[in-house]
Design brief:
alpha/beta; single chain; 12 strands; Rossmann fold
Length: 341
């Protein structure tokens, strides 16, 4: 299951001795970038775990730190990034490995589906050439074996006429097919963790449904742990087991997806739900007032306070802690804390 680290790390180490490590464990990760306007704090002290065969959705507006977190996990941040914390995949802390070793593990231990499939694929190479290159980079397969693996992958991601699609160039495929090719490449070496950055953006509803079905199939058949970044509440509700809501680089609410979406305890989570269209929705959508803060000039206290109708004086001076508000649900809000006092 997906959980937030609520105890000191020393308390977790004893439990780790008696249990297999989770597929992915993020411990107190922070990411910042020095700029002319000051230090941009893109990710602030984020911790969670994802077990094998589980799907975690990370929700939030643009600029909340979702994609920066994924790129940090994969290890493709800009050289100027200042990263603290630990990123453990099956117990191995990737942040402690040499750069060359991280590159070697990328694709075999963890992999990523990028947001725009057209830019993720090279337009001058065929689908076959790109998948074969990915397979051979991380395995000792021959060209023939790698081609067979490419054909197997296209079948896995449910592409029609896979033999014909192998010889196609990216521009000859539809948006949905390109996205499935990108997913096939990410799965080429059977990674234990799959990161997906807005994989359904710009896809029509029918293709989106097929891609989400594909993620469910991948986790069921391969036992892959999946971290899915999205701004779409409906996507998270459709496919995820657990959800983590981020705002201004911090986790503001987390827990089982049905609990968080059915009974949100943070004002920002409620704002996201009120601004999204759901099945049978007839009421007028309500936008969250204001704009997300500049990450280089975060306000004191709760970053959401300037946009929150329920903000108190203390909200503007103190950063709330992430506290338990249910069996597996946590929220970073003074009002949420009152629920358990």
């Amino acid at each position: 299951m997906t959980t937030v680290l609520e105890r000191p790390l020393s308390a977790l180490s004893a439990r780790a001795n008696s249990e297999a490590p989770p597929a992915l464990e993020i411990r107190h990760v922070s990411v910042s970038f020095p700029t002319r306007d000051g230090l941009v704090r893109a990710v602030n002290d984020v911790s969670f775990t994802v077990g094998e065969g589980r799907i975690l959705a990370i929700l939030g507006e643009s600029g909340s730190g979702k994609s920066v977190l994924l790129r940090t996990i994969l290890g493709i941040q800009a050289p100027s990034a200042r990263v603290r914390g630990a990123v453990l995949v099956q117990g191995t802390d990737l942040l402690q490995l040499p750069a060359a070793e991280r590159v070697r593990l990328r694709g075999s231990l963890l992999s990523m589906v990028f947001q725009n499939p057209m830019t993720a694929l090279d337009p001058v190479y065929t689908v076959e050439q790109q998948i074969v290159e990915s397979v051979r980079r991380h395995t000792k397969m021959s060209v023939g074996q790698a081609r067979d693996r490419a054909l197997e992958l296209l079948r896995l991601v449910q592409i029609d006429s896979p033999e014909r699609r192998l010889t196609a160039y990216p521009f000859e495929l539809s948006g949905g097919m390109r996205q499935r090719v990108v997913i096939a490449m990410a799965l080429a070496c059977k990674p234990r963790v799959l990161l997906a950055d807005e994989p359904t953006t710009a896809l029509d509803v029918t293709v989106q449904a097929r891609v989400l079905d594909l993620f469910r199939s991948i986790r069921r058949e391969l036992g892959t742990a999946i971290v899915l970044v999205t701004h779409d509440v409906a996507v998270a509700a459709e496919v995820a087991d657990d959800v983590q809501v981020m705002y201004a680089g911090r986790v503001v609410e987390t827990g089982p997806v049905r609990t968080v979406i059915g009974q949100p305890e943070h004002p920002y989570t409620r704002g996201l739900l009120n601004a999204n269209v759901g099945p049978g929705h007839t009421a007028r959508l309500v936008a969250i007032p204001g704009q997300p803060p500049n990450p280089a000039q975060l306000p004191e206290g709760c970053a959401f306070a300037p946009r929150c109708d329920s903000a108190l004086g203390a909200c503007r001076t103190t950063v709330p802690e992430l506290v338990r508000v249910g069996a597996l649900q946590y929220a970073r809000c003074i009002h949420a804390k009152e629920l358990i006092d």
